[in-house]
Amino acid sequence: MPEEIFPLVDETGNITGQASRSACHNGSKLLHPVIHLHIFNQAGDLFLQKRSAAKDMQPGKWDSSVAGHMDLNETPEVAACREAKEELGLSDVKPCFITKYVMETERERELSYCFYTIYNGDFVLNKDELADGRFWKIDEIGSILGKGVFTANFEQDFINFLGKGLAGISSGI
Fold first, then answer.
1. Is residue 172 included in any domain, yes or no?
2. Is the pTM of this model over 0.85?
């Protein structure tokens, strides 16, 4: 199977080139766009996915409900819907934009587009990508931040949401 090719972007999201997945994840810090879709239920709980042990980045950690790389010439909204279908079997997702920011780890730089949606139906987990998934109480998440349970990306999203009104999103459901 050919290696995935990711768009490269500047910090505002303009495409500046392209590179392979391995080039983006090898410490080069090539800025590439990703989406994170956070799915709440009517009770205000947040669905998280547990990453497969086979993932090249942050295997086995709990992550955003839906997380993935954008394809070339794909909008963030389309990428969020595509990834929701691929990872959780959802076909009628309406992502609501929250924020975008640059996330940097020791191995990569990502332009993260963050969305949320409210969903109360069933999920069909793609076992090739996800090890598990479940709804979490917001307080439960907050009590174990920084303890190596979650991906760095999710923790940054969670912190950003608290500053931008996560309580308002989850309590208004």
1. no
2. yes
